[in-house]
C-alpha cells in the first residue's frame, strides 16, 4: 500500500489537530504538561494552535487519507503570535510554570525542529509515520538541514533511529517524563 504525502492546507488543520490529539492522548509528555481537566479538548485545541503556527512559518505534512500529520519548524521560526501564546498559556493553566522551568538541551544551530508527528491510533503500525517522516526528511535534505526532535516515548526512539536519528541527550524531568533528544544530520545528496 503506497502512502501519498502532501503539504497540509489551512482546511486540513482541524482534522490534523484531532489526529494528533488522538495520537498523543496517552503520550507521557502531554499527560504531564496538559492539565487533566478537559484534557482531550485542551490537547486538541493546543495541537490546532501549534499546527496553524507551523503552517505559517514551517512545514506541515499529511498523508492522503489524513491518518497522520507532521509539523516541522525552521531554525529561524518565530514564536507564535501574542494571541496564540495567550491562549496556549490559558490551556496549559497551572502546568505552564512547570513547562517554563523545564530545561531541555538546545537544538544545534541551523537545525530544523520536528515539532510533532502523530498517527491516528487505528492506523499506527501501518507505515504512515514512516512515510510522512521520510518525505519530510527528503525535503529537508534538499536544504542540507539537520533535524532535531524530542520524544518522551521510548518506543519512538526505534522509529526515529531507523530514519537516521541518534540520541544526543536523555533528560529526566522531575516528577515528569524522560525526554530523549535526537538529531539527524542532513544526508549527502
TrEMBL record:
The keyword Nucleotide-binding does not apply. Its EC number is 2.3.-.-. GO terms for molecular function: acyltransferase activity. The lineage of its organism: Bacteria, Bacillati, Actinomycetota, Actinomycetes, Micrococcales. PANTHER family: GNAT FAMILY ACETYLTRANSFERASE, N-ACETYLTRANSFERASE DOMAIN-CONTAINING PROTEIN. Residues 3-185 form the N-acetyltransferase domain. The keyword Transferase applies. PROSITE patterns: GNAT. Keywords: Acyltransferase, Transferase. This is GNAT family N-acetyltransferase.
Amino acid at each position: 500500500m503506497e502512502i501519498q504525502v502532501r503539504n497540509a492546507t489551512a482546511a486540513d488543520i482541524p482534522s490534523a489537530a484531532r489526529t494528533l490529539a488522538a495520537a498523543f492522548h496517552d503520550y507521557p509528555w502531554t499527560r504531564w504538561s496538559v492539565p487533566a481537566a478537559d484534557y482531550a479538548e485542551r490537547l486538541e485545541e493546543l495541537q490546532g494552535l501549534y499546527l496553524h503556527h507551523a503552517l505559517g512559518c514551517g512545514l506541515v505534512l499529511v498523508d492522503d487519507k489524513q491518518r497522520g500529520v507532521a509539523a516541522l519548524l525552521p531554525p529561524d521560526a518565530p514564536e507564535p503570535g501574542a494571541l496564540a501564546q495567550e491562549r496556549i498559556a490559558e490551556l496549559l493553566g497551572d502546568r505552564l510554570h512547570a513547562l517554563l522551568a523545564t530545561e531541555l538541551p538546545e537544538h544545534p544551530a541551523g537545525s530544523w525542529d520536528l515539532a510533532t508527528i502523530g498517527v491516528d491510533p487505528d492506523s499506527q503500525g501501518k507505515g504512515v509515520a514512516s512515510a510522512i517522516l521520510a518525505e519530510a526528511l527528503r525535503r529537508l535534505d534538499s536544504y542540507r538541514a539537520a533535524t532535531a526532535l524530542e520524544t518522551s516515548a521510548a518506543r519512538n526512539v526505534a522509529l526515529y533511529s531507523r530514519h537516521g536519528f541518534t540520541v544526543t541527550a536523555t533528560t529526566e524531568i522531575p516528577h515528569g517524563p524522560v525526554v530523549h533528544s535526537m538529531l539527524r544530520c542532513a544526508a549527502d545528496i
